[in-house]
UniProtKB/TrEMBL annotation:
It comes from Xylaria curta. This is Uncharacterized protein.
Amino acid sequence: MRLNSPILTAILTLALPCFAISPYDIESYAPKDVIRRDVAVIGGGASGTYVSIELRDLNKSIVVIERSSQLGGNTRTYLDPKTGVPINYALQIYHDDAITRNFFARLNTSVATTSFNLSTSPVYADFSTEKLLPNYTVPLIGDEYLRELHKYPYLEDGINLPQPIPADLLLTTPDYIKKFNLQDSAPAIFDTPAIPGNLLETLMLYMFNSLNTLFLDEEAGAAINNADGDNSELYRNALAELGTDVLLNSTVVSANRTGNVKLVVKTPTGNKLVIAKQLVVAMPPVLGNMNALDLNPRERGILSQLSGKPYYSGVVQNTGLPDDHVYKNRATGTAFHVPTLPGGILLNPTRAPGLFYYWFSSETRLSQAEVEGAMRDSIKKLQKLVSSATTAEPEFVAFSDHYPFHLSVSSKSIRNGFYDAMYALQGYRNTWYISSLFVIGSSQLWNNTAAMLPRIAATL
């Protein structure tokens, strides 16, 4: 039989193994769909936007992969069509520090000093039972809280825990308050509306990490925001500068982080192959976000311990409520009047007449319809409490889902060294973590990212 017999050729062809084409093979993509960069950044929120601009200023090439249609993360702004007034209904203020002011200036965005509440006349009410708390007041944080806070300076700018970990930090907030006689400060401690979930179960470690010196400074007046009240302008300016280096409405569908980082990214115009020297994770690194990133057992074992909580915000009009008050939810039947969940946390007036923004917390994820339905019911109850003649029907005009919000782990994970293990992941497999895992506010995120930039740049 001749070696070039068609029959023999067919037999040999069938006997050869069939190899699938690798999704990381550049030959599988058109040249325009292969993106080579020094750094790939996943997440275009506060951290991701900041690190991208700073790396570009260091003459490093970047690409940002953002799943939503805009940059800014938890910064959300609704523009009132009647008045043109911008309404920030999620992030409100920034700490007044050099790095924050420099970042605004870098993006040609003017700032002005500000304060958190637009209303100085709070109404405390149980949003679920139609009961007012007429004698309820919230004093300033007392010296006894500051004394306790200052015992743990390593929680001010991260979660850099000593060994052994102080057992008191793993008490729930109510238990800590009782143990150290912080009852006078309790109303102010539980008046921090941006901490999600059941505050009666929140570990004091996370309360100190959130209600820290910077937060208290902001409440005391060391706060700024966009000069014209539109906090999203900063991110629009960043997007204009970053241009095609930002892939909006895009997600990573698979990755290979052996050697150079290779990411297959689903975009509105088809899949792209991103090849980068380093990867910066600027999104919450919970497993639901990280599963596509080629995790090895070490990474999966650490990240699987993380969870975030549901939190929602939005804008509502036609409430029928006087807009010279901020309405705050305080339960009548819980310890320290902590709101029952799910439920609205506050309903705050805005500079646009008749428009309020609200914040809403839950222990389980809800749909937009469920959140807005619950807020509608609360507003109807508030109508009866403060303006019984009105029958206005609330109209919801903006909504944002901030899940997973304020990442945390169990007390068992903390005792077992979760944070040491998480810090040790920095740079491992060419990957860096800069999202709101160790600090919360945008200004702290920018400061912490600035401190980490030299380490990232050194790898390039």
